Amino acid sequence: MPLSFLIFGRVVQNLAGQTANYYTTVSSNVQYLAIIAACTAIFTFLASFMSELSAKRQATRIRKLYFAASLRQDEAWFQTARVGSLISKITDNVDRIESGIGEKLTSFITQLSTFLCGIIVSFTLGWELALIGFTGVPLMAGAFASVGILTAKFSAKEQVSYSEAASVSGEVLQNIKTVKAFGGEQDSCNRYSAHLKKAERIFILKETILGITYGIISFTLYTCIALIFWVGVGFIIQGTKLPPGRTTVYTAAQVSSIILIVLVGAINLGFALPSMRSFFEAKASAFEVFKTIDRIPPIDKNAAGKIVENFRGKIQFRNVTFHYPTRPEYNVFENFSLTIDPGETVAFVGPSGSGKSTAIQLILRFYDPQQGDILIDDVNIKELDLMWLRNKMGLVNQEPTLLSGSIADNIRLGRSDATDEEISKVSRMANIHNYIVQLPDRYHTVIGEGGGNLSGGQKQRVAIARALIRDPKILLLDEATSALDTQSEKIVQSAINRAIEGRTVLMIAHRLTTVRDANRIVVMNAGQLVEHGNHDQLFQAHGFYWSMLNKGVSFQFL
């Protein structure tokens, strides 16, 4: 663009001089302008297309890395990281990164190049006027660099507030029935609004500082342009010969070209500097995103470990002491020891908070104990390959979690390479096959998010089939029937009885009908093993187990 203004200045000079061949000269200069315009169009297209394509690919790659890194993290990390915040980072934060390395970067390079070329061309035409025009540049650059640091800090705080707002909205919408049942709509709105207001206050402060900075920059730029015009006209009128040693005076072409070049250079600098705001915001966003991507969890599924040949499914707790990271003052287990033999069915019972579900989480190695060891087939669980270990286990929770998709997709979550025949086989074992084949699309029936189209018992049986598809040596049942009605419980319990054959089973139950047939019942209280044995032995001992049974008509109240 500065080159085009140089040619424009020549046209002005020819018109002002009214030379005999000025039409020919103007035509020649117009041809040059056309060539410059064509080259500019081509390079602008290539720069814009390539930068946007590169930015989009980088953003896609970052999203994949962030999602994979999030799935890689340990359970303790998820206890402190809210789901809404994670979603906000993978969308909003990456969008800011994409903007900073794509469209904004291309514009910044183009505008800054125009400004720098303008300096070179204008100083070539007349360094005195050019020097006047660009005197304020160091001041403006320093001002914006300083405010850029503040902008990055404010942007980071603003993003945190928006992430917290996203967490609140996600949490409320996921549990909308509970919120409505307790009339919590207004309170939820107030919590959401509080985070938005906090972000708004930060935004106003940030924009105020930026607005003042832009105003100072604009004032300085146009003051310099006015000085060029004033001094340049004076040079022309007085016929001053500058610099020393030159025999020609400043012409209208030189002055008009310098004014236009400085003006356009100033405008481009004015557009370029705000683009730096996007860079600072992208930097703040990238810091949060890559903090997760670069984090190596203490329990890493990607770390190589041992694989046990001829795996049997023996489980040992040896002097285990454990507390959750969010409650370091409360030990769930205190010097807990227990051995579960291969093929044995062991039921954990006890009051709420006694450590029953924690045992399952430790076996799955969602957490590591602070003291003691957990051994699988006489090998410390920390030495085993984590992905291999979990593939040897099947889990059925009290509230079965089904994903949006077909029934077959949900069962294949247990093993992605499972065939249709294998899915049908485990569905029969789980007492759900007869129901599935009555559906219009059979195993390809889409059940909706959370399995909303299925009853509680049906979802639980799909979850059992999902656990069985990997043919686990260890089956973990965390209150698998406690949320079901009597009829559904009978069907699911029948499926469980089939599933446990030939496997090591650790079950947590609140109902006598579930635990009385276990090989061994482990009675827990306050993280301690109080007593263990089969139902008849414990009942006749008149101990803690017997007292729990006699506290109410139903064992399910434990």
UniProtKB/TrEMBL annotation:
UniProt KW Disulfide bond keyword: no
Cited CDD domains? ABC_6TM_Pgp_ABCB1_D1_like, ABC_MTABC3_MDL1_MDL2
Keyword Transmembrane part of the UniProt annotation:
yes
Localization per record: Membrane
**Gene Ontology MF terms:** ATP binding
Question: What keywords is this UniProt entry annotated with?
Answer: ATP-binding, Membrane, Nucleotide-binding, Transmembrane, Transmembrane helix
Ranges for domain ABC transmembrane type-1 come to 1-278
Boundaries of each ABC transporter domain copy? Answer: 315-551
Q: Which SMART domains match?
A: AAA
Q: Provide the transmembrane region boundaries.
A: 32-55, 105-125, 131-152, 208-237, 249-273
What is the topology of this protein in the membrane according to its UniProt annotation?
Answer: Multi-pass membrane protein
Q: Which cellular components does GO assign to this protein?
A: membrane
Domain of life according to the entry: Eukaryota
The UniProt entry's sequence similarity note says:
Belongs to the ABC transporter superfamily. ABCB family. Multidrug resistance exporter (TC 3.A.1.201) subfamily.
* The protein, known as: Uncharacterized protein
Species assigned in the record: Cichlidogyrus casuarinus
Query: What lineage does UniProt assign to this protein's organism?
Result: Eukaryota, Metazoa, Spiralia, Lophotrochozoa, Platyhelminthes
